[in-house]
């Protein structure tokens, strides 16, 4: 029985490698924009995307367990995806400045096209007031890498400078509730107990 990560996310791949998991990577072809167009709630959106990715890949690779994961940032009831370009990244950072950002990450396990387990966690990140000069300098250093992230930051890099306080699980903020996933894998005999 194999394990597959249905994601192209570098940080999710790095988390699984660091945890000692053997797995393959096979991105899903889920139409994320279609799902985002009909779901506004951050928790429901993160869960729906994670489940859809896991189910799609596991439907094609029925002998394997598939991990699907997604993250959504919400600010004052509005959800944010990855910025389309640097100009949109600037707009997002200006909107987040001085506010609390809620980052929700979901992870799902699926086999033979059916979800078997799903977990959602939310972290709260207080963005300090950001000057235009800081935003420009930050994006000069971090673009285009942060263009592939919701929230326009990588906590494992300079993105940590955006925040005055953080409440929540570190792995959830990185993009996948890893501790819960490892427990689910152990329970299914995919990791030693």
Average of the residue pLDDT scores:
96
| Total discrete domains | 1
Counted by DSSP, the helix tally is 7
The CATH topology turns out to be: Maf protein
- Secondary structure class reads alpha/beta
Note the overall shape.
globular
Can you characterise this structure?
The chain is α/β, with parallel strands linked by helices and 193 residues long. It has a single domain (3-187), classed as Alpha-Beta Complex (Maf protein). Helices cover 37% and strands 26% of the residues. It has 7 helices and 7 strands, in the order βαβααββαββαβαα. Strands 1, 2, 3, 4, 5, 6 and 7 form a 7-stranded mixed sheet that branches. β1 (3-5), α1 and β2 form a beta-alpha-beta unit. α4 crosses α5 (132-142). The model has no long low-confidence stretch (mean pLDDT 96).
List the helices and strands and how they pair.
Blueprint: E1 3-5, H1 10-18, E2 24-25, H2 32-38, H3 42-60, E3 65-75, E4 78-80, H4 86-96, E5 100-111, E6 114-127, H5 132-142, E7 163-167, H6 170-174, H7 178-187
Parallel strand pairs: 1-2, 1-3
Antiparallel strand pairs: 3-4, 3-5, 5-6, 6-7
Give a short synopsis of this structure.
With 193 residues, this protein is of the alpha/beta class.
